[in-house]
């Protein structure tokens, strides 16, 4: 998770793209339980504990702003996270020590947009960009997302 891995000395700054940014003592699962996302019921664990977005609801849940063919490719190639990672509490969030930028997806159905806004605000980021996008904003709005990443890199002198 970027929130703790970002603490490595070679990391100059963090750019969150419609992502969890827990504080110390918080977990992504706790954040989701406090304000569940619209597609919460479309996530199902398998017998090994990995969390999958159900293929028949993937498009509407994850990338409703992409066309059906793009959504199908994403659905059949999705990388499922281990469910237990959503219960892991963060111990030392890197965003408290490093410069941060955050992109909120206003139509996100995987992380409630109000959770994204709350996490972004408390990080005191250098910039917040809110896009009218679903969770897969990297794919649906690559231009504005790349612009935010480039702005961060320029500001850091990379």
Describe the overall structure.
The chain has 158 residues and is an alpha/beta fold. The longest helix is centred in the C-terminal third of the chain and has 15 residues, at 142-156. It has 7 helices and 5 strands; from the N terminus they run H-E-H-E-E-H-H-E-H-E-H-H. It has a 3-stranded parallel β-sheet, sandwiched between helices. A two-stranded antiparallel ribbon has the order 2-3. The radius of gyration is 16 Å and the shape is globular.
Count every helix, treating DSSP H or I runs of 4 or more residues as helices. 7
Distance between the termini: 22 Å
Q: Whole-number radius of gyration? A: 16 Å
**Average pLDDT figure:** 94
Total count of strands: 5
> Strand order, biggest sheet?
1-4-5
Percent of sequence in beta strands: 5-15%
Q: What's the helix-strand series? A: HEHEEHHEHEHH
Spans where pLDDT lies below 50 across 5 or more residues: none
The SS-based structural class is alpha/beta
Helical amount among residues, as a percent range?
A: 25-40%
- Report the oligomer: single chain
What descriptive keywords fit this protein?
158 residues, alpha/beta, 7 helices, globular
Q: Short summary of the structure?
A:
The chain is of the alpha/beta class and 158 residues long. It is built from seven helices and five strands, in the order αβαββααβαβαα. It has a three-stranded parallel beta sheet, sandwiched between helices. The chain has a two-stranded antiparallel sheet with strand order 2-3.
């Amino acid at each position: 998770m970027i929130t703790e891995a970002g603490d490595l000395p070679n990391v100059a700054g963090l750019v969150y793209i419609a992502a969890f940014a827990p504080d110390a003592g918080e977990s992504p699962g706790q954040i989701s339980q406090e304000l569940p996302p619209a597609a919460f019921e479309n996530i199902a664990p398998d017998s090994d504990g990995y969390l999958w977005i159900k293929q028949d609801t993937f498009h509407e849940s994850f990338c409703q702003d992409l066309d059906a063919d793009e959504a199908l490719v994403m659905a059949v190639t999705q990388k499922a996270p281990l469910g237990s990672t959503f219960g892991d509490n963060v111990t030392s969030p890197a965003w408290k020590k490093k410069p941060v930028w955050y992109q909120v997806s206003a139509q996100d159905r995987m992380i409630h947009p109000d959770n994204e806004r709350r996490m972004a605000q408390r990080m005191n980021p250098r910039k917040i960009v809110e896009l009218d996008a679903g969770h897969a904003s990297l794919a649906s709005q690559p231009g504005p997302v790349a612009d935010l990443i480039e702005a961060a890199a320029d500001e850091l002198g990379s």
